[in-house]
Design a protein that fits this description.
Elements lengths: L5 H15 L4 H12 L9 H13 L4 E5 L5 H8 L6 E6 L2 H13 L6 E5 L2 H4 L11 E4 L6 H11 L5 E5 L15 H15 L3 E10 L2 E10 L1
Parallel strand pairs: 1-2, 1-4, 2-3, 4-5
Antiparallel strand pairs: 5-7, 6-7
Length: 222
């Protein structure tokens, strides 16, 4: 059995992307503009972006909540999965990031179905309870607040709402009891909440892609 190395899994990631993921000018431009503006390259890998897109379609999602917009790359993928009349609400703490995301969404032709709300998610989420429940929630923001975001995902969802939490592998650090950094501790607490909170049924998968060794948690609100 071949032992995976960064070169090997990056090569496989590029192969899978080229084989199965449809890139286009709007997506490439979104990444280029994000990079030019100095935003960190922490958006999901293309294979994971399409995974989110397919999950939204499989779930028949009409309303999607995203916590953590960055430059809008994953937001474009989610918006493109929606049927006519569908809506994405995405929350971004940084006004500059939100401005870049709006421009990217408009260029991709999905700006009319996405609402970018600027502010800390802890402040924005309570204001979303007046609308219909969300069908899918994607959590990709500060890991220290994962339990807060999960609580709101359950509150703002319904039985059957799909919840995805990104970056739960942390290059293996999540399983290292000696690692007490805030992001790792926040990730663990989120996973423990998915285990213990009766509102969720969940699992998690490790991932190897061009972003490195990480993982996602996948849950359903029960």
């Amino acid at each position: 059995m071949t032992v995976p190395t960064p070169d090997a899994w990056t090569r496989v990631d590029h192969y899978l992307t080229e084989t199965l993921v449809e890139q286009d000018a709007a997506l490439e431009a979104a990444l280029a503009d994000q990079s030019s503006a100095g935003l960190p390259a922490i958006e999901v890998a293309p294979v994971n972006a399409k995974f989110l897109h397919l999950l939204a379609r499989i779930a028949g999602a009409r309303r999607v909540l995203e916590v953590g917009t960055l430059g809008g790359y994953s937001t474009i993928w989610l918006a493109r999965a929606l049927p006519a009349g569908g809506r994405v609400i995405t929350i971004e703490a940084e006004p500059v990031n939100a401005s870049i995301a709006r421009a990217n969404l408009d260029r991709a032709g999905v700006g009319d179905r996405v609402e970018v709300r600027v502010g800390k998610a802890a402040d924005v989420l309570p204001a979303l309870g007046e609308g219909d429940p969300f069908d899918l929630v994607f959590i990709d923001a500060d890991k220290e607040s994962n339990t807060l975001y999960l609580d709101w995902a359950a509150r703002l969802g319904r039985p059957g709402t799909v919840v995805v939490v990104d970056n739960i592998g942390r290059s293996g650090q999540v399983a290292d009891p000696l690692d007490t950094t805030s992001q790792v501790v926040g990730t663990r607490r989120g996973l423990e909440m998915l285990r213990d909170d009766p509102r969720f049924d969940a699992t998690a998968l490790q991932t190897l892609d061009r972003k490195g060794w990480d993982g996602i948690a996948l849950a359903v609100v029960v």
